[in-house]
Write a structure and sequence with these properties.
about 10% helix; nine-stranded antiparallel β-sheet; five-stranded antiparallel β-sheet
């Protein structure tokens, strides 16, 4: 992340006698919003495994101290892999602490990831696990994708299901429609939502709406005037915002779905989402309006989680403490982006923060939790070492 330009006897002493710890002071300049014009960043680095380093970063601004914990991961190391982790691999409406998620997956480390419905527990935004799309994108928000070869991508992803309808013994092509929501709440899609068993066994049907239940590729049942529907394990439920879009469908119709992705992301096997963008190609790039975030909310000072890619193509998991005037006051998104840029991270996205911000390494929470206890979350980004 940060390079040592000359030999320092103190650094050598620390490296040898304090468990591979290096402290690098770095002077930085640059202003965004209320960030200071000059600052001293102290970066304490500890090598945990070959290819995995933990940085404890300390600095100050005109509001007080800032402490961040940065896990740097060498993606070229063949012993390292990265996955999206859920509390229950078969259900998304389950919450647990990140410590338990890391432990249940036998991961080396992890950070909290997607925003989620606090009450129901379902993650919001792109989520791919074990090469399966679990949740589709929401609000054009940025996501981080990982290939099986540890290639990392940050982009805004679109997922559309092109559904062709066939009817009768001769399978006559009857028409088509598009799905723009995969396992996301009714209010988050504009056209047709598709809900698989990953959502759960049941789904509450919005008032005055009709659900088409597909089982084994055929419309098995059409449900209306009910409060709750069953989602088959080998099928899905379709719910349109405007029922007329699916009015032509009948029981027994065959459906064939072709999923279209933009960008392609065919190599991506794992992905998590958050938002908004923080850095893009080395420049601060915060497009909270395009990603449907309220500026006033994101300009507040809070604990922050983020994930980024560095100049060296290493992956960085970042947790910033906050809401503690004596320890760390937290950052706005602009201050966070500025700090990451100074740490030579080139591309980054914000993740769920505040009380959700948690970084776990070797079974222990590294950061100081603002809630003083671990919040149950929907998923995490996990690091494995074999």
């Amino acid at each position: 992340m940060l390079t040592i330009t000359k030999t320092n006897p103190l650094l050598i002493f620390l490296f040898v006698f304090l468990g591979s710890i290096i402290i690098e002071p770095v002077f930085c300049k640059g202003v965004v919003h209320n960030a200071p014009t000059e600052c001293l960043i102290k970066d304490e680095i500890k090598e945990l495994k070959p290819g995995i380093k933990l940085h404890t970063v300390q600095t100050t601004n005109n509001r007080g101290p800032i402490v961040a914990y940065v896990l740097e991961v060498d993606l070229a190391n063949k012993n390292i892999s990265i996955k999206a982790g859920l509390p229950d691999k078969d259900k998304i409406k389950v919450k647990d602490t990140l410590t338990n998620i890391v432990k249940s997956h036998r991961a080396f480390a992890g950070i909290n990831a997607n925003y989620f419905d606090v009450k129901a527990g379902n993650p919001l935004g792109t989520l791919i696990a074990d090469n399966e799309w679990i949740v589709g994108p929401v609000y054009n928000r940025a996501a981080l994708g990982i290939s099986k070869d540890n290639e990392v991508f940050i982009d805004k992803v679109m997922l559309i299901g092109n559904v062709t309808v066939y009817r009768g013994f001769r399978k006559k092509e009857l028409g088509m429609f598009f799905v723009d929501g995969l396992n996301i709440p009714y209010d988050f899609y504009k056209g047709v939502g598709l809900f698989t068993s990953n959502w759960g066994k049941e789904l509450i049907l919005p008032e005055n709406k009709v659900a088409r239940i597909v089982k084994g590729g055929r419309i098995n049942k059409i449900e209306e005037d009910v409060l709750e529907i069953k989602i088959p394990s080998n099928g899905y439920a379709l719910i349109a915002r405007e029922d007329y879009v699916l009015d032509f469908l009948e029981k027994g119709d065959r459906l064939k779905i072709e999923w279209l992705r933009e960008p392609d992301w065919s190599l991506v096997t794992e992905a998590i989402s958050g938002g908004p963008y923080l850095l893009k190609e080395g420049m601060i790039f915060i497009d909270e309006k395009e990603e449907n975030f309220r500026f006033s909310k994101n300009d507040t000072y809070a604990p922050r989680s983020a994930v980024g890619i560095g100049k060296n193509n290493n992956l960085f998991l970042i947790a910033v403490d906050g809401r503690n005037n004596n320890h760390s006051v937290g950052l706005s998104l602009y201050e966070l982006a500025d700090l990451l840029k100074k740490l030579e991270i080139t591309d980054a996205i914000n993740l769920d923060g505040g009380g959700s911000t948690t970084l776990v390494v070797e079974g222990k929470v590294v950061n100081k939790l603002s809630d003083r206890h671990e919040r149950k979350i929907s998923n995490g980004l996990l690091i494995f070492y074999k």
